[in-house]
Design goal:
With 267 residues, this protein is α+β, with helices and mostly antiparallel strands. It contains 9 helices and 12 strands. It folds into 2 domains: 79 residues, 2-Layer Sandwich (Phosphorylase Kinase, domain 1), CATH 3.30.200; 171 residues, Aminoglycoside 3'-phosphotransferase, Chain: A, domain 2. The N and C termini lie far apart (46 Å). 37% of the residues are buried.
């Protein structure tokens, strides 16, 4: 991914040479006290900027406030900007990640369902629809074998959906003396317990979390069903991104213990 051009920097009133930041899929740059990244779906970027710009300050979490271009727009030359926040991610602090996510979800609970969700068509959106039985779970034989027990265990739930952050674990930053900072918000319309379950599933699969992490959050509503959907979401997304070739022995071994944990919570 190329760095923001001089035209982009000028549009946001920036002069410092852009520096690539870690994470962000290699697409996030810093110029001075401003973070720049290419806007994805324009409607989503504009909606998110409006929400984050107007979100009240909280003692429980911080957010990266969007930065307008010199022309007053949220997007310039295909790029969006936000304030640089102090801190660094720490995937070992999953309980703190989940606590910050819960506070953030409470703060945005009253927002209406954004229309851009009907436009978004990527591997992650596909995985989300599969998880909620809005699309078929068809795919390669290895994928079907891995996901079949989760699909069989899935039952209808009666929970209220709202806008949530669908990728918390690597997107919460910590700094001494400051509330956790929530960044890089991929928006989904699901129950908050599902967003927490995705964070727990990711921690079990990728960040060396133990099953007692799931136990500590098991008072969340429909916890077993949320974990089931969280894992279907991640596994279906992997299938959409990589197809049959992704399902190596090592890749399956990442998911299998987490699947056992999830199914243990399904009554």
């Amino acid at each position: 991914m190329s760095a923001p051009s001089e035209a982009v920097l000028d549009a946001f009133g920036l002069s410092e040479h852009p520096v690539l930041l870690p994470g962000g899929q290699g697409e996030t740059w810093r110029s001075g006290a401003v973070v720049l990244k290419r806007a994805g779906l324009v409607a989503e970027s504009l909606w998110r900027a409006d929400v984050l710009d107007g979100l009240p300050e909280s003692t429980e979490f911080r957010v990266a406030r969007p930065v307008r271009s010199r022309g007053g727009e949220w997007i310039a030359h295909g790029w969006e900007a936000s304030q640089l926040l102090a801190g660094a991610t720490d995937v070992r602090r999953q309980d703190d990640v989940l606590t910050a996510g819960s506070a953030f979800h409470a703060a945005v609970a009253g927002l209406l369902r954004p229309g851009f969700l009907d436009e978004r068509d990527d591997a992650w959106s596909y995985g989300d629809r599969v998880a909620w039985d809005e699309e078929s779970a068809g795919g390669s034989p290895a994928y079907q074998d891995l996901v079949s027990g989760l699909v069989k265990a899935r039952r209808p739930v009666d929970l209220v959906a709202q806008v949530v952050h669908g990728d918390l674990p690597g997107n919460v930053m910590f700094a001494n003396g400051l509330p956790p900072a929530i960044i890089d918000w991929p928006v989904y319309w699901r129950p908050p317990a599902w967003a927490s379950a995705v964070a727990v599933a990711d921690a079990l699969c990728w960040y060396d979390a133990k099953p007692d992490l799931a136990a500590r959050w098991s008072d969340l509503p429909e916890w077993g069903q949320m974990l089931v959907r969280a894992l279907i979401y991640r596994i279906a997304t992997d299938e959409a991104l990589g197809g049959a070739e992704v399902w190596t022995t090592d890749r399956r071994a990442v998911y299998e213990p987490a699947i056992e944990v999830a199914l243990a919570y399904v009554g």
